[in-house]
Amino acid sequence: MKSAIPKVLHPLAGRPMLAHLLASLAPLALDPIVVVTGAAMDAVAEAALPHQTAVQANQLGTGHAVLAAKDALGAFGGDVLVLFGADPLITPGAIEAMLAAKKQHAVVVLGFETQTPGAYGRLITTGDGSLDAIVEAKDATPEQLGIRLCNSGVMLIDGEKIWGLLDRIGNDNAKGEYYLTDIIALARADGLSCAVIKGDEAELLGINDRADLACAEAAVQNRLRSKAMDGGATLTDPDTVYFSFDTTLGHDVTIGPNVVFGPGVSVGDRVDIRAFCHIEGAVIASGAKIGPFARLRPGARLAEDVHIGNFVEIKNATIEAAAKVNHLTYIGDARVGAAANIGAGAITCNFDGLNKHHTDIGNNAFIGSNVALVAPVKIGDGALIGAGSVITKDVAADTLAVTRAPQRQAKKPNPQTKTKGKK
Known about the structure:
423 residues, alpha/beta, Spore Coat Polysaccharide Biosynthesis Protein SpsA, Chain A, UDP N-Acetylglucosamine Acyltransferase, domain 1, 11-stranded parallel sheet, 9 helices
């Protein structure tokens, strides 16, 4: 990845690819789960919590990596499922198919057919369809390279057989590594049955570089878009809408083009989100209208029937029912009361250079255009703030506050009049 970030921590739809894989395992209630990491990868171990980790100090191949988990598994005698953190798109359904097949076999491998097998290991099958061997591409003959049935790397192994098989793996190959795939030939030599379950190539994409990461992001987004539409949302241009892994949408939500959802967004029923909005860490109640070109930052909480218009930014603020913030406005660290109206260009001045301060705007208050509310400040219910005012003190309920230099007028000079003594 050419990155200081460990590969499995690169994000897809707002969370690390490792977290996607662990989330796919969660519905299956597999236990225990051990994450094998390289040395000094504390960030990976933290991301794996609450699951335990095992360290592969010297990275000598996939077979060696599985052996690194032996002590962590301890006396566990059940079947062992081996997956890879950089293959995050696998679904629970594929694993369930492997678990079902395992009842008749010692080893089950998840494979896929592709028109571009490239560097994938090839699955060698017998006439009856059993798996005979896995051959790495660098060790394959020209005839074997023509096989399109490929190894995904995902493997389910009999818990009573796995360690004896792994202990016999050698490293006499092009990479000088201990290949997990060699246990197929060893198992067959012991008279054990091995099988292949065919999976979907799209969900078995391995991520090895930034281009792969982009392909995986596209695949995840397509899943999330389909989920949103199946759940009752309208996406007017689905390919331009980007969701986070945890975006939740109510029924009859409409989402316009070029809308981006970051993590932590919940949207109620009948919400209209117009084009070019960016929303992250926000809760939007039913009936709200957002955008176009609006930004909701973390801590934004919008009640029922709120209107947020074009070029409005909301941060760490509560906008109560039926309030309107329609134009060119910043509301940060604030409360806007029910049915209040915020005029164009109004802002809450929440930062004094050292600390953030709160602005409280009462119910039915009216804030005129280009008003600056210098926090901490409270605007009472029903108060009216005149356009262009800079408010530094609290305003009582049902009062008018205006701070404005007096307007002066003078006769407009005539540009044709020459000043005496000058040419």
